[in-house]
């Protein structure tokens, strides 16, 4: 990463030559960050002085809105060179963000091969293997020897996203075997690749969700996985650098959905409007649900007027019960997210949660009784035992819902993280308050004060 | 992954030969999973019939408790072969889990080279680059030509964790350059590697936290990163497969800490006792904090008895305010976790959060007034405006604390995820309740009912 100091030096020198040699020497990702932080006019200048190959690499590291800005600011021929040289998967990602009219113009200018590659990728739905794959891989015919294969890899286009795996196909492009460059280097030069390459294929289908592709590569420690269509024909590969991004994206999405931030991940530095759009729906939803929960309390106002210590006690078991529920919910959703558990483990997890809840329930219930005894005026002390009992029950309800709800979502093929923390705590509040206040009302009827 | 069907077939055949050929053909990770699911006696049998090289690979995929069980069940000579052949980083991980006396015995039996490698790794604190690195990498001298370098890689031990990068060092083992196998293959055979290899070193120090190593490799799309000691001498490399695990582990830890699950990540299927140990401290802590919060309400019991609709309203703005706070907290902590923002962005983020809060605050405040008007009996309707006002204030307090607290933790070099959701909501409740009830008491004093 560039230190602030280096940035300032680069800024201050009006000498473009010095800036030029500096920017051409640095890693593309660092230059991308540097350019992103500049003002729009400076951005176009800094970008124009880059060497062509550096400009192409740097372009892929810029955020979509700045890519679009540069596309509008640069000459058409320059834009065309950059877009033509981009990797097909990065190009597809850019096209997703650009206005349709710009995409159409750019697509027309692309060479046939690049246009076809982009069209293939754009043909698959977002979030699938087909959409994140690249079409630049090394393909070998079955009959080659190891020496010929290595020679072929050496002559391959330097653009191939990885040369560390080569894919062996038959005449119909059907994927037959996979061989790593490592296997080739360690084999005798005159061996047939058929005898070196493995037919134990680990592959993804174009329609496989990207998080499953990531889990597959993680499980088998792969640097790239081949993607095949329904006829088992090789159409692309997904590489490890994409997988790292996918895993991080999915984790961010899970973590944010749990907190009630909706629809894709929100960057910490996005605009206030984006922030509101991502969060307000959940807040209004939660408040809406709370209308139900609070309507459950509203009829009990007389009881509360009689025993005001209830207003002190209720927030405690609401908050603590909510925490218990969120703990179980989070562990379950994360377990599903990293592929550690599946819905068929539901009973096993539930049994563990309920066993653990016995201890938790006892300790929280007793603490609740103790606390209520301290706060309640002498005449209301009996309330303490109802509070302890409801706290204990609440713990069981919380872990059960926290486990079963995401599992049920997963079984219904929905996103388990849609059961967010706020949704669960609201449900738990409603259940807890109704049980508690009903119990107190009943007691007041049987033994009127 | 093995289907349940395949498992049953493998189980049912008493024919060990068939099981043997089946287990020797499958990927090691699948066999590891299969063996983990067996009963202890069957485990030892299944493991014994594996081919030696397969046994070594499979062993690395077994959970530590089963590794320990097998170490006790197998012959010493068998155990020794396996441990000797393990990768130094995996071996260090195993030794972490084993009783000290077993580790001592195993270390004594290792060859000098392997013992030294393990001791080096175990010498670094957990969670640092030194601890997760491996010492099996390809090292080249500066004077070689490309052809000689490729030949050297070909002759290298097949055990090297990656051969896709080679590291060029001087006579004092100081790291000078890095070259990828790709660069070597595309270069002229008689070029000096000095002229092909890059001196733009991206490297980690042994004491660098593992998550920073992961972020570094992610940023520069590296398959491996060299690790150097304080004298810039090459001591190991960290490979991408470890990074994928580290990133996932760190995400799980963040997500669980946010939900108040303490100390490392909890597996969805861990034992009830582990579950209790990880969660109860937070629950008791949260309840403890709530004693403070509730003590703030306790003195207001008379006010509540006079205006019981307060007990209906308070849980709503407690829950909604908590949700607002958790949203801001989560986005900030995740932003820090993936390295997207740093404490110097605090003001930028705070400005965005406060701008977004203006809209949120207005809509939630108005909703609150509406709801309170519906529930309150006619004489208490004035309370609605206080509720709306406090709700609006609460939103600003929530986003401010949700942003500033984790940033402050980060600045103090503490883990930002220690500010968990339950901790924040408890603080927000206390603040909200005190402001609200004080406001109401004041109003009642000025305009007694």
Compact summary:
Chain A is mostly helical and 449 residues long. Helix content of chain A is 66%, strand content 6%. In chain A, the strands form two sheets. The first copy, chain A, has a three-stranded mixed beta sheet.
Q: Output mean pLDDT of chain A.
A: 85
Within the CATH hierarchy, at the fold level, what is the topology of the largest domain in chain A? Tetracycline Repressor, domain 2
Tally of helical segments of chain A: 22
Please indicate the count of domains of chain A. Answer: 3
Keyword list:
449 residues, homodimer, 3 domains, three-stranded mixed sheet, CBS-domain, mainly alpha, Tetracycline Repressor, domain 2, 6% strand, MgtE N-terminal fold
Overview of the molecule:
The structure is a homodimer of 449-residue chains. With 449 residues, chain A is mainly alpha-helical. Chain A folds into three domains: 124 residues, MgtE N-terminal fold; 103 residues, CBS-domain (Roll), CATH 3.10.580.10; 175 residues, Tetracycline Repressor, domain 2 (Orthogonal Bundle), CATH 1.10.357. Chain A contains 22 helices and six strands. In chain A, the strands form two sheets. The first copy, chain A, has a three-stranded mixed β-sheet with strand order 1-2-3. Chain A has a three-stranded mixed β-sheet with strand order 4-5-6. In chain A, helix 12 links the parallel strand 1 and strand 2. In chain A, helix 16 runs antiparallel to helix 19 and helix 17 packs parallel to helix 22. At the A-B interface, helix 12, helix 13, helix 15, helix 16 and helix 17 of A face helix 12, helix 13, helix 15, helix 16 and helix 17 of B.
